[in-house]
Amino acid sequence: MNPLNGFEHLFNIFMPAGCPICGRSTPVPGICSDCKRNIIYIEPPYCSICGKPFVSGKGISHICIDCIKGKSRFVKSRAVFEYNGLIAELIQRFKFNDKVNLSSLFVNELLNLYKADFFDEGINAIIPVPLSDKRLKQRSYNQARLLAKGLSRELSIPCYTDVIKKVKEIPPQSTLKADARYNNVKHAYTVSGGDLLKAHKVLLVDDVITTGATVNACIAALHRAGIKQVYTMAIAMRV
Ligand SMILES: [Zn+2]
Ligand SMILES: [Zn+2]
To answer: What spacing in Å lies between the alpha carbon of 82 and ligand 1's midpoint?
Structure first.
C-alpha cells in the first residue's frame, strides 16, 4: 500500500471534505464557489474604527458619524461577513451543533482578517465574549470561546477564557429593540483580573455583532478593570 493512501485516509477522517455549507466536495478545503456567491465579505470602504461598510461602496475608508460622536468603546472592530441569510444560517448551526467543521472554517477566516487588519496593533491577550452559566449548560459549549481559542493557538497569543463573566441573567438580546439592548446588558459583565490585567491590548472575540451592545458592555467591564485598549472581532456583523 502506498503510505500516502494511509495518510490520506487518516486526513479524511479528521478533516471531512466538502463545502461546510452545502456539503459538496471542493478542490480546496473551504466554502465552494456557489456558496461564496451567496455570502458577502465585508470589504473597504468601511469605517476605520467600527468596520461598518459605507452604503455607497465607493471611496476610501474613513471614520463614520457614530464613531466621530464617540459611540464606540473599542479601538477598532472588524467582522469577516455581513450577517445575512446564509451566514446567519451557518452561525445558528455553529451555535447549536456543527462546531467541528465550522470552527476551523471560521477560525481560518478570522485569522486572515487578523493578519490584514490587526497584525501591527501589538495585541497581547484574546478573550471570548462569555455566555452565562445557564446558557452554557443549555448549549454545552460557548461558540465564541472556540473561536478565541483557535485564534490564540494560531497566533500564539494567550487566551483568557474565565476572566470575564456574565453575572446578570438577562432576556435574549434578539427579543429586544436596539435601545433596550444597551440597558439590558449595561452591568451584565464583570472582570476578575489575574494575569489578564497585565495585558495592555485585548482582542474580544464574538460570533456576531448586531447592535454592538454586548461587546460594548464587555468593554465597559474591561475598562472598569483598568484595561483601556480593547479591539473586537467577529465572524459577522449586521450592517
Ligand atoms: Zn457550498
Ligand atoms: Zn464607525
So the answer is: 17
In this prediction, residue 202 carries a pLDDT of 95
The CATH number covering residue 96 comes to 3.40.50.2020
State pLDDT tens for residues 48-74: 999 999 877 677 888 999 899 988 889
Name the residue range of residue 113's domain: 17-237
CA of 22 to the centre of ligand 1 (A): 4
Rounded mean pLDDT of the chain? 83
* Pairwise CA distance, residues 117 & 40, whole Å: 18
Domain count for the chain, please give it.
1
Give the distance (Å) from ligand 1 centre to CA of residue 36. 7
Q: 3-class DSSP state for residue 216?
A: helix
CB-count exposure of residue 176 (10 Å: 0-12, 13-18, 19+): middle
Partnered with residue 84 across adjacent β-strands are none
What the block records as the C-alpha cell of 129 is 465574549
Could you please report the per-residue DSSP string of 2-60?
-HHHHHHHHHHHHS--S-TTT----SSSS--HHHHTTS-B--SSBBTTT-PBPTT--S-
Residue segments in the chain with a per-residue pLDDT below the cut of 50: 1-15
Instruction: Name which of 180, 176, 126 is nearest 153 in CA terms.
Output: 126
| Residue whose entry in the numeric block shows the C-alpha cell 475608508 | 61
Distance between CA 31 and CA 89 in Å, rounded? Answer: 14
Tell me the three cell numbers of residue 204: 474580544
- Distance from C-alpha of 26 to C-alpha of 16, rounded to nearest angstrom: 11
